Amino acid sequence: MGNGKKPATYEDIEALPVGWVGEILEDELWASPRPAMGHAHACSVLGARLVNPFSLGSGGPGGWWILYEPELHLGRDILVPDLAGWRRERMPRPPSPEEPFVTFAPDWVCEVLSPSTVAVDRTRKLPIYHREGVTHAWLIDPLAHTLEVFRRESSGWLLTATHAGDEQVRAEPFDAVPLGLGALWLARTNR
After folding, report:
1. What CATH number belongs to 35-184?
2. Which residues have C-beta within 8 Å of that of residue 99, sequence separation ≥ 6?
3. How much is the mean pLDDT over the chain?
4. Taking every pair of C-alpha atoms in the chain, what is the biggest distance, in angstroms?
5. What is the enclosing helix (H) or strand (E) of 119?
6. pTM higher than 0.85, yes or no?
7. How far is the C-alpha of 74 from the C-alpha of 85, rounded, in Å?
8. Angstrom distances, CA of residue 61 to CA of 20, 57, 83
């Protein structure tokens, strides 16, 4: 660390105000308030669209465990992606119901960007996910109405596609089922 500060601990996360999300990235505490409604809506709809075909096998191939905001303990880092998925061939059973966190890196993560988290998601969390062997990452911007799809390469993340607006897309690793992006976006209202 070299800056004389002691590494953040889980107690630092527990001391945050109610409703705040804490993560430890490279020994530093990062805290953010609960996200705005566009973020919550995009995350909820995406989870609903992926869980049925990929986690439950209803209308799709199954083969995944998909969790909403799982707490990941990866080495000394503690991360809370908006959504994460594990291929069942790598993790045959889901975590048991009483487990408070997962120590096994997912195969796919999705971060829904907020103005307060975009820099951390891109510059701090993506490198950790890469280091831990996550094979796919999605970044969704509910204000710009975009989905960026990344695939892990040995040298770093490869941006394989950027989708926008109301497109129907097949985005890896969930390209077996089309995803209508328009459902992810809340319309702006003039009040």
Report:
1. 3.90.1570.10
2. none
3. 93
4. 54
5. helix 118-120
6. yes
7. 15
8. 36, 5, 19
